[in-house]
Structure formats: C-alpha cells, structure tokens
TrEMBL record:
Domain of life: Bacteria
Gene Ontology molecular functions: ATP binding; ATP hydrolysis activity; branched-chain amino acid transmembrane transporter activity
Keyword terms, alphabetized: Amino-acid transport, ATP-binding, Nucleotide-binding, Transport
PROSITE patterns recorded: ABC_TRANSPORTER_1, ABC_TRANSPORTER_2
Family: Belongs to the ABC transporter superfamily.
UniProt-listed InterPro entries: AAA+_ATPase, ABC_transporter-like_ATP-bd, ABC_transporter-like_CS, BCAA_Transport_ATP-bd_LivF, P-loop_NTPase
Residues in ABC transporter domain copies: 2-219
Protein name (database record): Amino acid/amide ABC transporter ATP-binding protein 2, HAAT family
Record-linked Pfam families: ABC_tran
Biological processes annotated in GO: L-amino acid transport
Length: 222
C-alpha cells in the first residue's frame, strides 16, 4: 500500500528525515512512535506531498508519487489528519468534512459522507454546528471524518490521541478498530503506543529523523 525508500528531507536548511525506509501492507495498522521533534509530522507531510523530499521515493499502491502534488494523494484515496486538526472555524462540521470532496471533485462524496456518519453518528449529531464551537476532542473526530472522505484506502493520522479526554480517546480507538476491520491501511503517529497498543500490527520508531526497523506486534505483515 505504501513504501518509502531512503527518504531524506530538510526544513529551512536543517536535515530532518534521514534515509527513512517504511512499508505498510494492505489492511495493516502501523504505528510511528517518537518524541516531539523526532520527525513524525515532517514524515507525514512528506508522504502527503506537502514537503518535497531531497531524495528517495514514495510509492503508493505501486505508483511513484514522489514528485506529484498533494491532490494526487486524494485521487489515490489517501486521507490525512494533521496533528493540529486545521479545521476552518467558521464553517460547519459538515462543510469541513466535505472540503476534500469539493477540492478534489470526488464523485462518491454523498456515499462517503453517509459512511462517515454511520461510523461516527455523534459527528452527524453536531454536523450543523460551527467547528469553533466544538471541544478539542470533538474537533479530532471531525478531522478524522474529513480524512476519511478521501482516505478510503490509506489514512495518515498524526497524533490523533494527543490532548483528547480518555472517553474520546476510547471512541477514536473504536473507530480505528472498525476501519481496520474494513481493510483500510493506517499509519498512526504517537509519542508512545499506549492508546493504540491493541490496534497496531507493527511499530516503527523514529528518533532524530531516522526510522528503525519495524517491531511486529501481531499478525503476518512481513
């Protein structure tokens, strides 16, 4: 589903990612564990095409996406949930969720929205509220719902549990479990995998921009 080979990237002249190799098999939920500043967000942004790597390759479902613009990821059915949510505060919840569909002219937008609401009925319950009226945890759910609009094959979730109350963390974990059973591939970053220990199939550790060989947690994902 996703294969990174020898990815190097810098920001403002400072090397951040160093020869990163990473692979996600179809239907696997993979953890990316590292402290703040280790390079997790930079790696996510590089995969999404928001930051161009200095070298290396990004292959998504057999297609070389390294030099392609971010919108090609949506066409490849990849969704991204950034750490800081990046919702438009003056738009409603439903409008925020539909942004990827509008921007990329997704033909199945209505069906995807219905699927999102089926998985997360609590989000449908506040669909007409402005994003700025939501709690931080509720905004995380909306950001996940927005990522799911285009991410029907692969989801990249950057620190989805950070700053979320325990009850909402459990709800997020429940949704991710459902997505996993439906065959989506997921890359999920955390400072540790205390929230996702029961979900992940394997874990990569990132430190100072270098990623270690994966640790197999469960299943045959080799």
């Amino acid at each position: 589903m996703l294969k990174l080979s020898a990815i190097n990237a810098h920001i403002a002249g400072t090397p951040i990612l160093r020869d990163v190799d990473l692979e996600i098999k179809p239907g696997a939920l993979v953890g990316l564990i590292g402290r703040n500043g280790a390079g997790k967000t930079t790696l996510m942004r590089t995969i999404m095409g928001l930051l161009k790597p200095d070298s290396g390759s990004i292959i998504i479902e057999g297609r070389d996406m390294t030099a392609l613009a971010p919108h090609f990821r949506a066409q490849a059915k990849v969704g991204y949930m950034p750490e800081d949510r990046q919702l438009v505060p003056t738009l409603t919840v439903e409008e925020n969720i539909l942004i990827p569909a509008w921007a990329n002219k997704l033909p199945e937008a209505e069906a995807r929205l219905a699927w999102v609401y089926e998985l997360m009925p609590e989000v449908e319950a506040f669909a007409d509220r402005k994003a700025l009226q939501l709690s931080g945890g509720q905004q995380k759910l909306v950001a996940l719902a927005r990522a799911m609009m285009s991410g029907s094959r692969l989801l990249l979730l950057d620190e989805p549990f950070e700053g979320v109350a325990p009850a909402l963390s459990r709800r997020l974990a429940s949704v991710l479990h459902t997505l996993k059973t439906e065959g989506l591939s997921v890359l999920l970053s955390e400072s540790d995998y205390s929230h996702s220990a029961d979900l992940v199939d394997q874990v990569y550790t990132i430190e100072r921009g270098a990623v270690s060989a994966p640790k197999i947690i469960r299943g045959d994902v080799a």
